[in-house]
Write a structure and sequence with these properties.
Radius of gyration of chain B: 19 Å
Strand order of the largest sheet of chain B: 4-3-2-1-5-6-7
Oligomer: heterodimer
Shape of chain A: globular
Number of helices of chain B: 7
Largest sheet of chain A: 5 strands, parallel
Radius of gyration of chain A: 22 Å
Largest sheet of chain B: 7 strands, mixed
Structural class of chain A: alpha/beta
Structural class of chain B: alpha/beta
Chain lengths: 470, 198
């Protein structure tokens, strides 16, 4: 009998093009997602070497990092952004790559549009020049973030040499308390394993709590695998996965659907398969979380207080903790609910899908944004935006005083005009609270869409569990 | 890629853990469409602080960076290794590195030297106490030492990465030697797999 294998090992083994002693495996790549920021130099190198894109029909490009999220029809404020998008326009035309450009309704954050279009499917190897590529792992795909030289390698060869990662199971079991959502689950996981805990590993998220998450919740969890250092993160495909995919534009149809489904059902981890590392969490112990520092592992329950770094056991943790508090301008012992906010950002590849917007709108309905807060909602794609408008969610947000924008990465990393001013403090549904991530001198607290919405109304963090919905 | 063999140079002590790529090079500089010229933006925010170690003239000309664990975490931007290399660094010594950053450095010939935390501490301490110290990183023998001293410390490195670095090889050319294997694999891919054309 064959050795029991994990989901990620099955995908890995079925994609090995060449295996030689002393060399990394050469893996075939089924889907390559491209955006404007990490591709320009790769295309230019191809051009210099006289190479083509080997499989343009396995490649799709969009613009997301740089694009303004308002007044797109007017001249863009940053000529460098204009140039970078123009360079991608030319590259996809020259090399024959499928492209959802800025005026295409399918344009959006690369990790939102793959699943939305049905391109992201179980069992695939997926790469993108972006560290949040693990998002696609929610479908049981092995999805890896890569750098520009690797982008060039995949464009030229449709393969990627990779050292085989170790496997890690993160098991979450039990029922999540009301108000506790996928974002809180992944923040708790990262707090448990640490920002470097997943280095060299692919994480498989398992257990009934994960099974009970929607596809969008699973995407939120997988999205932040990199914040725990992991190479990739994935969830075994199941009926929920198949139901999500069926009928989407690029999902298989007819006989292909039947063949694909039969294949997908063989993918989940075998019962006796061993993981190199196992971590377990209880769903009942997870609370609505807020980050207080400058790494995604530095989080605490919304009802908690800013920790005192002097109470940390290791000297390094003390120093790191104080450094973070100094940057964040916070004092130990401060109640999280007493922290006032200047900005609220609902968006990013972590939390900008339709379900996120519905959840936030349900909190906002009938309230107004606090006078001291400027809040914006940035849908993950043009199609998410259209769907939200069809459901009237845009009205809920704008009537409350939120700005309603076009799709893009926006304030998650501040490459477009949506940035924090020095000293401003934001509640953000994005994935990174690094120093200056949302703008030089800006201070970021990571939260769920529900918690961000409630914070926008209140002007400070509040426990979503006690929120009265209208 | 230029071959990497032996580096003998001053080391800058950056005694911080989890240095993320947003610190190494902020997103606002990722709009450039070239591979060069990022060095002047290296650690852009931190360099605004006069006391930041890279601003200390005593470390000008250093080619080795010594840092805390999980160096290079966060974004996949290869602009981070480009900025470090463009600034003049040829090797980074730390107890651990983020995976994508590690791969990106290998592609451009920036040598990552992973040592135990206590070993990194020795180099960090020397670089802080005696900035003129020259660190010797020798890839062939996989050792780190100090100029004028007999002892060395061993470091592990993926043998394939070592081979590529020492010979300055371009891995696309290497992969294209397997063109037949790629074509054979492609011939066996099931028809239900997606394509990005209608």
């Amino acid at each position: 009998m064959a050795e029991p294998r994990t989901l990620s090992e099955k995908i890995w083994e079925s994609h090995v093009v060449r295996r030689e002693e002393g060399q990394p495996d050469l893996l075939y790549i089924d889907l390559h997602l491209v955006h404007e920021v990490t591709s320009a130099q790769a295309f230019e190198s191809l051009r210099m070497a006289g190479r083509k894109v080997r499989r343009p029909e396995l490649t799709v490009a969009t613009v997301d990092h740089n694009v303004p999220t308002s007044d797109r029809d007017k001249p863009w404020p940053d000529p460098l952004s204009v140039q970078q998008v123009a360079v991608l326009d030319k590259n996809v035309a020259d090399f024959g790559v499928t492209y959802f450009g800025v005026n295409d309704v399918r344009q959006g954050i690369v990790h939102v549009i793959g699943p939305e279009q049905g391109l992201t499917q179980p069992g695939l190897t997926i790469v993108c020049g972006d560290s949040h590529t693990a998002t696609h792992g929610a479908f049981g795909a092995l999805a890896i973030g890569i750098g520009t030289s690797e982008v060039e390698h995949v464009l030229a060869t449709q393969t990627l040499p990779q050292a085989k990662p170790k496997t890690m199971a993160v098991e979450v079991n039990g029922t999540l308390p009301d108000g506790v959502v996928a974002k809180d689950v992944i923040l708790s996981i990262i707090r448990t394993i640490g920002v470097g805990g997943g280095i060299g590993h692919v994480i498989e998220y398992r257990g009934d709590t994960i099974r009970n998450l929607s596809m969008e919740g699973r995407m939120t969890v997988c999205n932040m695998s990199i914040e725990g250092g992991a190479r990739a993160g994935l969830v075994a495909p199941d009926d929920k996965t198949f139901a999500y995919l069926e009928g989407r534009p690029f999902a298989p149809k007819g006989q292909d659907w039947d063949a694909a489904l039969a294949h997908w059902q063989t993918l989940p981890t075998d019962d006796d398969a061993k993981f190199d590392k196992v971590v377990s969490l209880k769903a009942e112990e997870i609370e609505p979380s807020v980050t207080w520092g400058t790494t995604p592992a530095q989080s605490v329950a919304v009802t908690g207080r800013i920790p005192d770094p002097d109470g940390f056991s290791e000297a390094t943790a003390k120093e790191v903790g104080w450094r973070a508090l100094n940057y964040m301008d916070l004092k130990p012992g401060t109640a999280i609910e007493d922290i006032p906010l200047d900005r609220v950002f609902i968006g990013s590849c972590t939390n900008s899908r339709i379900e996120d917007l519905r959840a936030a709108a349900a909190v906002v309905r009938g309230y107004n944004v606090a006078k001291t807060v400027r809040a914006l909602v940035v849908p993950g794609s043009g199609l998410v935006k259209a769907q939200a408008e069809q459901e009237g969610l845009d009205k809920v947000f704008t009537e409350a005083g939120f700005e309603w924008r076009d799709a893009g990465c926006s304030m998650c990393l501040g490459m477009n005009p949506d940035i924090l001013m020095p000293g401003e403090r934001a509640a953000s549904t994005s994935n990174r609270n690094f120093e200056g991530r949302q703008g030089p001198g800006g201070r970021t607290h990571l939260v769920s869409p529900e918690m961000a919405a409630a914070a926008a109304i209140s002007g400070h963090f509040v426990d979503i569990r006690s929120w009265r919905r209208n | 890629m230029e071959p990497v063999r032996r580096i003998q140079a001053q080391a800058v002590p950056l005694n911080r853990s989890d240095v993320d790529t947003d610190q190494i090079i902020p997103a606002k500089y990722l709009k450039l469409v070239e591979r060069t010229g990022f060095g002047k933006y290296l650690f852009d925010s931190w360099r605004k602080d006069e006391s930041f170690v890279l601003n200390d003239p005593i470390y000008q000309g250093a080619q080795v960076l010594v840092a805390g664990p999980n160096f290079g975490c966060g974004s996949s931007r290869e602009h981070a290794p480009w900025a470090l290399e463009d600034y003049g660094f040829k090797a980074i010594i730390a107890p651990s590195f983020a995976d994508i950053f590690r791969n990106n450095c290998a592609k451009i010939g920036l040598l990552l030297v992973q040592l135990r935390p206590d070993e990194v501490e020795i180099i960090m301490h020397r670089a802080e106490e005696k900035p003129e110290t020259k660190v010797i990183v020798d890839l062939e023998s996989q050792t780190v030492g100090i100029e004028g001293e007999e002892w060395t410390m061993h470091f592990d490195i993926d043998p394939f990465v070592k081979h590529m670095l020492i010979n300055g090889l371009d891995d696309i050319s290497l992969t294209l030697q397997s063109a037949d294997a790629i074509a054979t694999y492609e011939g066996k891919r099931p028809s239900f797999l997606p394509t990005t054309v209608g």
